[in-house]
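During the no-cost extension, the postdoctoral fellow (Dr. R.K.) reprocessed legacy sequence entries with the updated structure-token encoder. One reprocessed record is reproduced below for audit purposes.
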Amino acid sequence: MKTITTTQELSEFCNRAAQGDYVTVDTEFLRERTYYSKLCLIQLALPGKDVADAVLVDPLADGLSLQPLYDLFQNETVVKVFHAARQDLEIFYVDAKVIPKPLFDTQVAAMVCGFGDQVGYETLVRKIAKQSLDKSSRFTDWSRRPLSDAQKKYALADVTHLRQIYEYLAAKLIKTKRAHWVEEELQILTAPETYITDPKTAWERVKTRSQSPRLLAIVRKLAEFREDYAQKRDIPRSRVFKDDALIELASTKPQSIEDLQKSRLLLREARKGDIADGILRCVRAALDMPQDKLPVAENFDHKQNVNPALADLLRVLLKAKTENLGVAAKLIAGSADLDALAAGDRDVATLQGWRYEVFGQDALRLCNGEIGLIAQGKQVRTFTVS
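Re-encoded structure tokens follow.
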């Protein structure tokens, strides 16, 4: 089990990789105490079964530059294969503004090939490679050195079995003529904006029961402050204050340090200093905001206008389509998409690209009363309404 610790060694391996068709990639990282992931280990494997075809790269080694790897990532003659790539890609984008291309994500491909919603790597290893994984090193501190042989073996398994999984799924996509489905899905993963968290939009991820514009204004200000504070200090946003504390603050609207002391959910460190000042500043700014500048929750109207019977019919149609295609339903349309369609919204992903071909077109026809559904034995089929 070779571990690369110098730039020269990494360059030599990447030069070998540049001669092949693909390279499998995985990472181990820590994020419990930081905002951005701390890269601790990189695993790489080339096509084949030779021992030298799979290596570990130690990014914590003194003097090691990852530039040879980043050059390989931008070599468009070599496919970079990941499983559930988003967090791995975020690490590389944050570090060097590099996104591997061309990219292949076996989790996305597996969903297209009928292995279920967000199928795990372990499941694919068992079903495709007919192997089992040693889980003993799953929960480990990858920043500690030296790594044990068990840790190294565990880490390498994440890229060695991935070769067989990739080859199987790539062949199946060609056979079923669904490769372009995966390419469409990967456009999100390969877009730089996917890995840029704008503090100004952070409030959109905070779940609130109230739709009060004034309360939402406070939520927006507090979420923006928290995100900016966490990014600049590289600490988890929960270390600033958690979502439940944010909602409490938006409801109680504290005006002073004394008010903050009455909070049930605010961390002790957030009741003084820069965080406390920031909270009070956000609340004041939101309370002073003109009425016409207050935010409005998106999709609120959808929830009010959903035709429940039509939403149920769309769910039946989706189930029938996915069972026939052998595709994960979640990949085609989520519950929110179906509700939006049933509320009259036509600006949804389900009506774009390959999703429109396999589901969206008939979903629109069902909404417009042009087709109906009929049960025939164990199957549900569509029929044209005359």
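The mean pLDDT is 94. Strands lie at 2-4, 22-30, 38-45, 54-57, 79-82, 103-105, 371-376, 379-384. The remaining legacy entries will be reprocessed before the final report is submitted.
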